[in-house]
Structure formats: structure tokens, C-alpha cells
Amino acid sequence: MENKVHCLVLSFPTQGHINPMLQFSKLLQQEGIKVTLSTTLFYGKNLHKLPPSITLETISDGFDSGGFSEAKSFRAYLDHFWQVGPQNLEKLIERLGETNNPIDCVIYDAFYPWVLDVAKRLGIVGVPFLTQNVGVNSIYYHVLIGKLQIPLDVEEVSLPELPLLHRRDMPSFLLNYEKDQSFLDLTVNQFSNLDQADWILCNSFYELDQEVIDWTMKIWPNFRTIGPSIPSMFLDKRIKYDEEYGATQFKSEECMEWLSNKPKGSVVYVSFGTLASLNEEQLEEVASGLKDCESYFLWVVRPSEDTKLPKDFEKKSQKGLVVAWCSQLKVLAHESIGCFVTHCGWNSTLEAISLGVPIVAMPQWSDQATNAKFIVDVWKIGIRVPCDEKQVVRRNGMKDCILEIMNGEKGKIIKSNVMELKALATGTVGVGGSSHKNITEFVNSLFHFTSITKSNQSSDFILQ
């Protein structure tokens, strides 16, 4: 491993952030770069099934026994981590520097803007990794520079190269920041020092958002899209046996056999991600909507949500199956799946696009409403379920949307649109595709940087 370019990849401690960064790490390895993955000590304890070629190192966020839950509040968590994080990261980089293969570059979740200061101080390449939709990034950037004022006192928002956005399309942190401003600060501050970064990487692809990306590159010429950052066997298949992210914190529950007994395109897959929490009333409406619809359904309900289900709701029947966890990529790739009822998290959205699955959008919080806007009105690959005055999705509305996707004329158009995007997603990561070219350009720059650095170090040694 001596003299290889060595990247430290530092992820925020949630599944939705570590998955795409781990996937990108695998691509870097394919290009001949050594990768060390890092996250917080508490989160790292629960990771398993990492690829054997990727070393895991952890840093303390000050809450080593419980992570977020150990802190008095999310604000307290961030304040303390931001205080101890820089010195703990610097110690890790210095310790790895004592090996035959010191760190040349740190690729960090953009939620950690302070990492760039550490990289600059140590003379290594600093590269933020944006894990959200390009349009969402643009919204937060405009908040940072004051072009989008908080609190929002308008019903419509017009920003460069974005569709006209209504209040319900905006990230939730802009609307409820008074309850807890820490989430808004976290997302907006991603962009506070990007102009000093050596590169800026984003988990999207050029063909999906050409106009927004072109506009973004005028602000930051070193901005590049490198996605969709999902396992290779679901896209271009260049990395053999790469069928899962490899950082799951959950044990798999077998449901593929159940799916295999269902007709092609007949199953509604339902999942609201790893963080969103639905109240009992909403879960009851979802359960009733699925029970009443004509289609089979596979529904992922986390153990923490399971107790909220109606007492008489059957978790396993000929028509439906409720599981605590499943391999979402394998499920979406199964020919029996006809549509995806989703919270519209960015990873889930990219997975649906990459596997050609139409979407029934049911956003919950964070960036999800904005993703839903793009899904419905820009890419036209799904339908958003209506809410009532209590912001609850009712069973009939859900049932109607599923029926339209599965059997309606609009559903046929949506299916055609998402299959077109699937082809583009596969092409962009393949040899010669836009994301592949961007990754190659980035990797070549790292080799160039380290060759110059090591050459200078050799010269200094000779002079001494």
C-alpha cells in the first residue's frame, strides 16, 4: 500500500449519509486509491459488513456511549462535537501520518464545514461531499447569502434554474426553525466555506438537473456530480459482487421469497426510511389504505414504529407482508414491484430512479418535500399524496394514488419517464458517462497533487 494516494472519508453518523460515502469509497478503490472510512465512535461500534479492503477509524464526538441520544439536545450535540471534533480529527490524521501511507486527502460530509479548516492547516486536500439534491443545496445556499429570507413571508419562492416553489415544497427546516434552529444552521452552514474547498462532490448526476448544475458550477467551478452513489450491480455492474452498501446497522429480514410468488409489477413497496416517525393516526391511515387497495404490498415498519400499528392489522397474509427491515435495493430491483410509496429521502429517490420504479410521494421532513416537488413536477416520475388540514394523508387519497400509478393512464406515462431516467443513471456512471468522467478527473487530480507533494518532500530530504 506504500505510496498510494490515501483518502480519509469522514461521514455524518446516520445511514443516509454513510451509505453514499461508503459507495463512493468503493469507486475510489477501483481507481487505485487507498480509503480509510471514519465516523463517530458510538456509530462506528454498530457498523458491520464493511468491505474488508476498507479500514474503519473512529473519532469521538464527545458522546461515545449514546451518540445523539446522550446529548441534552441536538444543539448541544452539535456544539460539543464542533468543539472537540477538529482536535480529534487532527489527532487521527497525525496518527495515520506515522504509517507508511499518510493521509493525502479528506473527503468529508458537508455537514462538517470545520473539517476543511483542519485539512488546510495540515496541508492536505479538503473535499466536501454533499449528500442532498442539487436543488435543495441551492435553497440552503440562498439562505446563507441572504437572498432567501427566514422567516419565509411569501407563498411562492423563485430561485435561479429551480421550478417555482410553494411553501409546502420547501425544506421543513425553513418552516419550523423556531422550534429548533439547529437543523437549519446545520444544513445552511454546509456552504459557509465551500469557496475554499479543493473540490466539491455531490451525490447526483448531470443529466438529472443540468440547468441547476450549470448554475452551481458558475458559483463553484470545482463542483462535480459523482452519483448515483449506489452499489454497482444495480447500475453499470463494473464492480463484481457489489450488491449492497455494506454499512447497514440492521439485520436482514428475508422477504424475497414472498415477492417471488407475486406477479410482475403487482406489489406496492412502502418504506419511510430510518428516521421519519409517523404518529398512530397516520400509520392507521396508511395501514387502511394498503388493506383497501387492489395491490399486494410489502411494508417496512421499524420496531420503534411497530407498536403504533392497528391491533387488528395482519402483518403477514397472502396480500401483504410487514417486515422490520429489508434490502431496499434488492426489493426495488425485483420484477414484482410496481411502485414505491416513499418519504422521498434523497437516497431512496436516487434508488427508485436508478431501478426504474414509479413513486408515490409522501414526504415527512427535512429536504423530502423539495425532492417530492422535483419527482412530481420536474422529472414527472411520481404522484404526491394529498394531505388534509391536519397534514395527515388519508387512506382514500393514498389508495387513489396507488391505483393511478399501478393501473391508470398517468401511471403509464410515469413508468415511461422513470425508465428513461434509469437509462440515464446507468449511463452516467458507466465508462465515458458524466459522473464517471468527473470521478476520473477528481482521481487524476489527487494523483497529481500527491506526486508533487511527495516530490517536494524528497527534495527537502535531499537538501537536508
Query: Which strand order do you get reading across the main beta sheet?
Result: 3-2-1-4-5-8-9
- The structure class reads alpha/beta
Which band does the percent of strand residues land in? 5-15%
| Counted beta strands | 15
The best one-word shape is: globular
Uncertain spans? 458-464
Q: Give the distance, in angstroms, between the N- and C-terminal Cα atoms.
A: 27 Å
Give the helix level as a range of percent.
40-55%
pLDDT averaged residue by residue? 93
Q: What is the number of helices?
A: 17
The biggest sheet, with number of strands, parallel, antiparallel or mixed sense and barrel status, is: 7 strands, parallel
Radius of gyration of CA atoms, rounded to a whole number = 22 Å
Oligomer: single chain
